[in-house]
Amino acid sequence: MDEILHNIQNIAVVGLSPDKSKASNMVAKFLIKKGFKIFPIYPKEDEILGQKVYRNLSDINENIDIIVMFRKGEYADILIDEVIRKGVKTLWLQLGITNENAKARAYANGIKFIQNKCIKIELERLENGIFK
């Protein structure tokens, strides 16, 4: 996981809420502050945190290093198809989100898969030199 975090720059955030009290918004704000380029994916807004919002992954015309998902676990069954088509190397399901079917499909397609972990917590752990 550390190697993944060391080699990312462009992050698609699926389910990035405009609500500042939501975890997705707080994590995305942290990622921006740390210098990552984020690509919000959300159905109802045009801009979140000063970033252009996309309706789906295939609308993004830039290379994406990692997708961080803040939706119910079953949505990963749909998202994994987009991840495969787009050629993204890593799919990350946030803390409390899991999907074993999507995990199996990711691995079968050479995609790194992380679930039930918070990217913000893991980046802070790396930054502070805390190893697990």
Task: Tell me the layout of helices and strands.
Elements: H1 2-6, E1 10-14, H2 23-33, E2 37-41, E3 47-48, E4 51-52, E5 66-69, H3 76-86, E6 90-93, H4 100-108, E7 112-114, H5 119-127
Parallel strand pairs: 1-2, 1-5, 5-6, 6-7
Antiparallel strand pairs: 3-4
Helix pairs in contact: 3-4
Protein name: CoA-binding protein
Pfam families: CoA_binding_2
Domain CoA-binding: 4-97
What is the arithmetic mean of pLDDT?
A: 94
Main-sheet strand order equals 2-1-5-6-7
Q: Major sheet, described briefly?
A: 5 strands, parallel
The domain count comes to 1
Order of helices and strands: HEHEEEEHEHEH
CATH superfamily: NAD(P)-binding Rossmann-like Domain
Could you give the count of β-strands? 7
Our Rg estimate from Cα atoms comes to 14 Å
**Which regions are unreliable across 5 or more consecutive residues at pLDDT < 50?**
none
Number of helices: 5
Q: State the CATH class.
A: Alpha Beta
Percentage of residues in DSSP E strands: 15-25%
The coarse silhouette is globular
Intertermini distance: 11 Å
CATH T-level fold name:
Rossmann fold
Helix share bin = 25-40%
CATH architecture: 3-Layer(aba) Sandwich
Describe the fold and architecture.
The chain is an alpha/beta fold. It has one domain: NAD(P)-binding Rossmann-like Domain (Rossmann fold). It has helices spanning 2-6, 23-33, 76-86, 100-108, 119-127, and strands at residues 10-14, 37-41, 47-48, 51-52, 66-69, 90-93, 112-114. The strands form two sheets. Strands 2-1-5-6-7 form a five-stranded parallel beta sheet, sandwiched between helices. Helix 3 runs parallel beside helix 4 (100-108). The longest helix is centred in the N-terminal third of the chain and has 11 residues, at 23-33. It is globular and about 35 Å long. The mean pLDDT is 94.
